[in-house]
Design goal:
flat; 4 domains; Rossmann fold; 5-stranded parallel β-sheet; Helicase, Ruva Protein, domain 3; 10 strands; about 475 residues; 23 helices; alpha/beta
Amino acid sequence: MTPSDQAKIIILETNQEQRNYLRSIISGWGYLPFSFEKETTCLDNLQLLNPDLIISGPLSLERTFRLINTIKMINSCLPVLIITDNHGINDFITVNGFTDVLAVQVGLKPSEIKEAISNIRSTNLINKNLDDFPLIVGQNTAMVKIKKMIPELSRSKESVLIQGETGTGKELVARAIHFRSERRENPFIKVNTKVCAGELFEKNLIGACAKAFKKIDENKEKKFDAARTGTIFFNEIDRIPPHFQANLLDVLEKGGISSYGDLKDEPLDIRIIAATSTNLDLRVEKGKFRKDLYYRLNIIGIHIPPLRHRIDDISLLTDFFVDKFCNELGKSYYGLSLKTKGILSRYYWPGNVKEFKNVIKSSVSLGNEDNIISNFYMYNQTHTPRALADLYKNIDTIPIFPDFKNYLNTKDLSRISLKAICSDFVKQTEAKVIAKALETTGWNRKKAAILLNISYKSLLNKIKAYNLT
């Protein structure tokens, strides 16, 4: 057997003795092994070697999460065998639906390792058609709940409504539902209602909306027909014209639509997923969105939390996007310090994951950690947190002190201490802003600190100083 005929296996093991042992037995089974001590070196050589399997020895939970996420980002079909005694890995594998990632216990006999390699490679042959599977990164409790919902939603045909702020990843979740379902080999068609408006919307949806559909088919006919047996995704569903809301409701209820909008008896097997970044309940209350359509779309609802509510995912997201852009920009892989991750964790992220991704991409292109920190500080200064600005808008007129007007009218300037006036004003304003932030977050002091962009310790000190209860 020539080297080109041998299956290539990468071994990632920090322990030299164990690394040499695995290399020896794997070579004896006819595989071509390549061994590495560090994850970053392994990732640097991943695409060059184009292996058939990666075997990783024991790593910390977070390092293992990073390794699996990055491997799946680079090559979603590449099987991974993790040797570990940490049961949290199995939960991670199950929640993310990684059917070609297998965790086995430390201390297996050579025959058991050989069997595990054979099993994971056999599973991988079945999953070759899932190379576009969307990767949702995050282990926050809310995100884990969403990931656990996806397999159930994928087996259903009911419509789904995904709500969340701009940049939280609504389309990513919609694609994950589609690609985990039996419809995965059929079309996933996105309708962006921002580019189709007014009287043209219905015609564009059924006929052609160049910006939304130019990549779907050349003749641009019948987008509902184009999505037959697949999924149609309405992004920003709240923007569709009122007259078409009724027609869409008919489609959902009666199951068919012709070339020009006439209902027909033949049902179209289409999964409808809708998304919105607005408060759709409020729009329904104000009569700006049909209540019956809302309930028909919201049979199954998903709410994606903003990034500021999943700060515990910042470290994992940082590693993932650093690796992603190192891969795209052709740079060597590296890790960021806890200090840098802490700085990123203290920002409010009004643009959510989309904004976070852009900051990391810009930073990686600069090439070192010092530049990342300085670049982020500059970015932070030019991007005022949206919700923090909202706090100021909602604050009532702030009295400085009762006889302030008298101070302004007095001719005896010796009675005025500008420093004292400014100090009192700042204190009263600060106390009122903090009180509003605590009220907004339901007195969750950690969330309030993030919202105010100050440290948790500083917030506690200020709460005590201003006697806020």
